[in-house]
Write a structure and sequence with these properties.
Layout: E1 23-28, E2 36-41
């Protein structure tokens, strides 16, 4: 058994009015892979 890092692109749509520092948590399950927990923190520049 072992681990392998793989890169995947993910496009996330956020609702209007999201403020700087807002944090969203969700899981994604790529095909043939276990679920991956994602933490997204908003940076408004």
């Amino acid at each position: 058994s072992g681990h392998e890092l793989q890169q995947h692109q993910l496009r996330v749509a956020l609702p209007a009015g999201v403020i700087d520092g807002a944090c969203f948590h969700f899981s994604v399950t790529p095909r043939y892979h276990p679920p991956t927990r994602v933490e997204l923190r908003v940076l408004v520049a």
